[in-house]
Structures are given as structure tokens and as C-alpha cells.
Amino acid sequence: MGGAVTINAFGQYNEINALIAMSAYTTFEDVVIDNLKYFKVPKFICTIEKPIFKLALEANFGVDKVNKMNPITQIQNSNNRPILLIASSKDTNVPADNTKKLYSVSKNADLWIRDSWEHFIVKDCILIKVADDKEYCDKILGF
């Protein structure tokens, strides 16, 4: 959820000069449906569930917030500030297609889809050895 929260903040506050978002989803309802699909819930149930889930979100948080405070909408408020979107090609938590969709509607964005299986993107998923992942560090620091 960190990538999504970061994009939402970036879209709301022009004081944020740049954005790096990793494994971000497009909307909360999309990521829920992606996870249902991952667990092999039948397609017709996913199709029915998405609008029901969105209605539940709107009932709890309001239509305006649900429709405006989501990454796919907020990333469009970049005002030409630089963006780096990162995802893992085989992420099962948030499929890389989410990042590709965010990239397709963003301005001034760079995209890196790492050939990896893990949500956390860092090589071999060893978060305590991030500095040893030269490719990852070069990409972040180069941005």
C-alpha cells in the first residue's frame, strides 16, 4: 500500500518534487480483484464482486474520495514533476500490469519492470542487504 499512498500524496501536494513508487496498484478495488484472481476465484465472481466492492468503499468513504483519491487518478496531477515507477514482473501481490497502467496515464514518468518474482523488488528479497543490490541502487540513485 505504500506505493499507492505515496502516489496519492504526490498528486495532492505540489511541494513533493519527485516520486518513486514501487509495486503500486491503480485502485483499491483493482488490487482486491487481482488477489481474488490469484487465488483462482472464478472470473464471473470477480466480475460481480468489483462493483459491489466499489459500492461498499463509496458507502464507507464517500463517492468523491473513492473516485478521486486513487493512484490512477492522482498520478495524473504530476505537473511535470519526475516520476519513477517500479514493479516486479512476477509480483503476485500487485501484478506489474498495475504499474504499466499507471505509467500509461502519467506524464514525465520512467518505468522499470524488474525481472523478478517478488513484491519487494530487491534482489533475492533480502531487505537487509539492499545496498548489495547494485542494479536496484543504481536505478534509484540514478533517478
TrEMBL record:
Highest taxon of the lineage: Bacteria
InterPro entries tied to this protein: AB_hydrolase_fold
Protein name per the record: Alpha/beta hydrolase
Biological source species: Lachnoclostridium phytofermentans (strain ATCC 700394 / DSM 18823 / ISDg) (Clostridium phytofermentans)
